[in-house]
Amino acid sequence: MVTRIGIHASVETLFPPTVLVDELADVDPEVTVVTSDDLDDVDALVTFAYDDAFLDADLEWIHSVQSGVDRFPFDDLEAAGIRLTNSTGTHGDSVGETVAGYMLSFARRLHAYRDQQAEKHWEWPAWDEPFTLAGSSLCVVGLGTLGQGIAARADALGMDVVGVKRTPTPVDHVDTVYPSPDLHEAIADAKFVALAVPLTDDTAGMIGEAELDAMRDDAVLVNVARGPVVDQDALVDALEADDLAGAALDVFETEPLPEDSPLWEMDEVVVTPHAAAATRDYPRRMAALVRENVRRIAEGERLANGVV
Question: Are residues 28 and 105 both part of a single domain?
Answer without folding.
Answer: no
